[in-house]
Amino acid sequence: MAGVLQQDPDGSTVIACLDPRSGQQVATVPVTPVDQVGAAVARARAAQPDWHGLGLARRKVLVEALRQAFLAAAPRVVSLLAEECGRPGGEAWTSEVVANNDLFAWWLGQIDDLLTADPISLNPVNYPRKGGRVQLEPVGVVGLITPWNLPVAIPLRCLVPALLAGNTVAWKPSEHSPRTGALLHELCRQVLPPGVVELVQGDGAQGQALVTAGVDAVVFTGSVRTGRRVAALCGERLVPCSLELGGKDAAVVLADADLERAVEGIVWAAFGLAGQNCAAVERCFVDAALYERFVDAVVARTRKLRPLLDVGPLITPAQLEIVKAHVAEAVDRGAVVRCGGGAPGPGWYHEPTVLTGVQDDMLVMAEETFGPVLPIVPFDDLEQALARVDGTPYGLTTSIWTRDLALGEALGLGLRCGVVTVNNHAFTGALPMAAWGGPKDTGGGVTSSRFALYHLTRPRTVVLDALGQPHEMWWFPYNEALERLSGGLVELARRGGARLPGARAALSGFIARWKDS
């Protein structure tokens, strides 16, 4: 559902929601005035101490209630995703409902262990009768900005662990998926205390206002251009931020690959979500020995995909134009359309398109297309092919397709990417226990797994001293006894050192030190 900001007759700004399957307006959503974004953050700020003060056990009960409310609303979610994003039903159920049930279940099952404090064990000679712990504390208010391509799954990847850790959240969904955002927020309001999740609706102006409204951390998923701006704004305020900024993912098919599996898997990974997935296969490198058979099989499989039932439309007319421009530029420079290539509708639907004869400097190979286009390239030299895989500014995921799992793993680990998959692709983003992110222009942020807590919590060290004496060994005065004691301790620590003289020096220094005190 493309979102276009417009003025209502009463002067208020609304998002005009357009169904991408038809281009027709089906609803409007009120925009949060920029000058009210700070109030939303303030409400989240006011709610945070009480939310954290409930304790983890009670927060888990409420997050479980949110899970049950979400599951009960699943048919509404699926129906809305059809209008919002043109999402086929099977795709909506698997990627946005079933996967998120797993997400809730994993975090609820693991959060106690993940938030358990680490004990501090201190040397009883240097630090007698002292101990402590390092515990994870919530950062406070998390500013969350999410895209439209997975408008339920991506927010929940942050919301669930952030809430369990004791944070409150001020969230701005994409202006292209505002109704899904409103539905998820409605479910939060049903079961969580007021202010725990605050919703901000709008476009980039509201997003900027949110980042600068006094939040304690920012989690952003979106374009590289916007991500750089978010990082700059956070840097000015010394606010930590987690950025996931997309990919130009590659699949590498070796000569010994299971042909049928590779074809089925790569067609799904390229055209699922209509290619509007940061983990979509946007480049496919195939061993020359298998190339012709692979291309023929991919083309045959792609031609069986059904409009709106298997592959939905692009989300906006602008995104459709990007896809068309990438295909046209490739064709103008000699690429061959093996199937698809057109945009016949309905709505902003673009045919799943397979290209051959492409070059690395074509737009479809060099820039993120974010659409249903699969360029396939033969290679004779595997090492050169892997260098081409790494030759983009992105570093999200790569898949290697081979019957030799050890070889596939070794090749993948030699690449600069955050996720390596052998004989599969893209589904790892739905695994709550698996870190999701990557280097380079992908942004370096992490969602899912225990590493997501690094952006949602801060460590606090607590030390308890039960010594009850008026002096410590390292306090004033500095004297010869302290130097003798320190030198003896160092001598004891040296491998192969004179342990007996060291022990004598340490002991005599220790006695003299305490006698002087």
Which key phrases capture this entry?
517 residues; alpha/beta; Aldehyde Dehydrogenase, Chain A, domain 1; Aldehyde Dehydrogenase, Chain A, domain 2; 7-stranded mixed beta sheet; 5-stranded parallel beta sheet; 17 helices
What does the secondary structure layout of this molecule look like, with pairings?
Blueprint: E1 2-7, E2 13-18, E3 25-30, H1 37-53, H2 56-72, H3 74-85, H4 89-114, E4 118-120, E5 130-138, E6 141-145, H5 153-164, E7 168-172, H6 178-191, E8 197-199, H7 204-211, E9 217-221, H8 224-237, E10 241-244, E11 249-253, H9 259-271, E12 281-287, H10 288-302, H11 317-332, E13 336-339, E14 353-356, H12 363-366, E15 373-379, H13 382-389, E16 397-401, H14 405-413, E17 419-422, H15 453-456, E18 457-465, H16 480-493, H17 499-516
The level-1 CATH class of the largest domain: Alpha Beta
Number of domains: 3
Straight-line distance between termini: 76 Å
Rg (CA only): 28 Å
For the sheet with most strands, the description reads: 7 strands, mixed
How many helices does DSSP assign?
17
Low-confidence stretches: none
The number of E-state strands comes to: 18
Q: Report the CATH topology name of the largest domain.
A: Aldehyde Dehydrogenase, Chain A, domain 1
* Overall form: globular
Structural class: alpha/beta
Q: Short description, anyone?
A:
With about 525 residues, the protein is α/β, with parallel strands linked by helices. The chain has helices at about 35-55, 55-70, 75-85, 90-115, 155-165, 180-190, 205-210, 225-235, 260-270, 290-300, 315-330, 365, 380-390, 405-415, 455, 480-495, 500-515, and strands at about 1-5, 15-20, 25-30, 120, 130-140, 140-145, 170, 195-200, 215-220, 240-245, 250-255, 280-285, 335-340, 355, 375-380, 395-400, 420, 455-465. Helix content is about 45%, strand content about 20%.
